[in-house]
Design brief:
The chain is an alpha/beta fold and 281 residues long. The protein contains eight helices and 14 strands. The protein has a seven-stranded mixed sheet. Bound molecules: zinc ion (3 copies).
């Protein structure tokens, strides 16, 4: 699998354009990999994780083609991950007549939120809206395993926002596997049970690092919590020997610029992605 990091920032972007902190000012000056857009991931050109608000800007900036995207796995409905206007942007309504049918997998809650924010399309009802938007929706729940085209996907529960049902995904294809795990705090025990039952070896993990050098939280991970989660995956035998471990969902208030974060992470045995980076899994 080839996974392209469409964006790796936390909810406010990095730099947050409204913020004058040292991290934001430095990122603005340095540019390049210090400019991080809100989180999304593209796998093999056809599977997008999160229909995020910066997907359009990232595609323009990094030359990422979304023309073949026919599957979308939605982690959750927070606004930094779900921007329903993009359903319209890829539809005949906006003059797009050659896009494949988009199969959208999300919880019912995320689907409800998407439909609420669809303006005129929301009043049509789901079936008619889907027909006009070249869209098929597939409500899913935590702890399911299902086929998504050539991929096998397992959904697990994140520890993030108790008012919604946030999901993390294990994505497998041709014997390779990726665990995409943002937004989350330390994983719930039910998720550890599901990982144990899954029993495979992860070739790559892309995990929440929102809080970096900040205080620990039950809803996101700081560096110490990140390392503890990775250590537990390793102890349980769930990591391949050469597994690639990447930090994502980077917040300006708790993480330094790219070079410094890469250096810190390297001493702790993991990697830091940057927007536009493609990794081979
Ligand atoms: Zn987020
Ligand atoms: Zn800042
Ligand atoms: Zn979130």
């Amino acid at each position: 699998m080839r996974a392209q990091l469409v964006g790796i920032a936390a909810a406010e972007g990095y730099p947050d354009p409204f913020c004058g902190c040292d991290n934001c000012r430095r990122a603005q000056v340095l540019g390049g990999p210090n400019l991080r857009k809100r989180s999304a991931l593209l796998i093999d050109g056809d599977l997008l994780i999160d229909l995020g608000p910066d997907v359009l800007a990232a595609a323009q900036m990094h030359g990422i083609a979304l023309t073949q995207v026919c599957y979308c796995l939605q982690t959750h409905e927070h606004q930094d991950h779900l921007h329903p206007a993009l359903f319209v942007a890829r539809s005949p309504y906006c003059g797009v007549h050659d896009a494949p049918l988009l199969n959208f997998y999300s919880t019912q809650g995320a689907l409800d939120r998407a439909m609420r924010d669809m303006n005129n399309f929301a009043t049509l009802g789901l079936d008619e809206a889907c027909a006009r938007l070249n869209l098929a929706v597939h409500p899913i729940a935590p702890f399911q395993t299902f086929a998504v085209g050539p991929y096998q996907v397992s959904s697990v529960l994140a520890a993030h926002d108790p008012t919604i049902t946030p999901l993390l995904y294990i994505i497998e294809r041709e014997g390779r596997s990726l665990f995409y795990a943002t937004d989350t705090g330390p994983l719930p025990e039910a998720t550890w049970e599901a990982l144990r039952a899954w029993g495979g070896r992860l070739d790559a993990v892309i995990m929440d690092h929102t809080l970096g050098y900040g205080a620990p939280s039950p809803r996101h991970l700081n560096g110490e919590q990140f390392r503890a989660e990775i250590a537990r995956l390793r102890e349980m035998g769930l990591l391949a020997g050469d597994a690639q471990i990447y930090a994502t969902h980077i917040a300006h208030h708790s993480n330094p610029g790219h070079a410094e974060l890469v250096e810190q992470a390297a001493t702790d045995g993991y990697l830091v992605a940057h927007d536009g980076l493609t990794i081979t899994i």
